Amino acid sequence: MTEPRRVEHQMTDKGYVPVYTTAVIAQPWSQYSAADHAVWGQLFRRQREILRDRACPEFLASIDALGMGDAQIPKFDDINRLLLEATGWKLIAVEGLLPELTFFEHLAAREFPVTWWIRRADQIDYIAEPDLFHDLFGHVPLLMNPVFADYMQAYGAGGVRASTFGNEPLANLTRLYWYTVEFGLINTPQGLRIYGAGILSSKGESIHCLESEVPNRIGFDVQRVMQTRYRIDSFQKTYFVIDGFEQLFQATVDPDFGPIYYRMKGAEPIPAATVLDSDRVFQRGSGTGWSNDGDV
Ligand code: PHE
Ligand code: CO
User: Fold this and answer.
1) What DSSP element (H or E) covers 15?
2) Nearest 5°: CA angle at 204, between 198 and 207?
3) CB-hemisphere CA count at 13 Å for 167?
4) CA 231, CA 275: separation in Å to the nearest integer?
5) Fewest CB within 10 angstroms: 74, 101, 121, 192, which?
6) pLDDT tens digits, residue range 188-234?
7) DSSP for residue 73
């Protein structure tokens, strides 16, 4: 087999350009250096501590159930034995970002792509693209939850379908993924908790999303979310709060999105900062320090 590549973005005179790859490889576990394991350990300890009263209980329980610890980078084969038994999901090792349709197809087959390589020590606090820590620590524990596991598969199948409808439905679905799977909050009897992987793998945003007065926190509504622009270069201006994974499932998996996409066709997307009269507001953000441009 050829050596696995470490596929990262490229800087060109036009700026940052993402690079896509479709190869599915075997996790080259014996090739991780002592420095790689140390980066995992440092990130794991730090996030485990920060997330103790901030992550949803399902996430924290699954970190333990999967045997993840700070001693070394987990072996995907070990995770897979537990994950397959729990929900039928399976990790596959990849070299970097996948093209959208390829990603959807894997999810629809209950395969979660995990980048095999981990960030360098000088990237501990921020890396522009997903690495092993984000993918494995952030995304994989919730795949142990049966309802969330089914949501992720349905999302993949919905993505394959949306790609036959054109660019606007795809943009709608991407926003849904962003505001749920990557940056979602969940309401619990103990208060708001994090379930989005983009937050769970970030020290700064784990604190900001729950404790800061700056962002909006708004009740989840599927159409509202599918119309809302987001940020990729800063903390989110708005977080959407679900009442539980069952609510998320019922709002997204049950309805046929065909007519919804049709109704939303041509509608002007809502800026990331906006609070609507119809929103269920947990917190109206102060907006301090926000820049006006840069919504995706
Ligand atoms: N129900 C959606 C459709 O009809 C599919 C979907 C499921 C989308 C889950 C997102 C999340 O296309
Ligand atoms: Co992610």
Assistant:
1) strand 15-17
2) 95
3) 1
4) 16
5) 121
6) 999 999 999 999 999 999 999 999 999 999 999 999 999 999 998 89
7) P
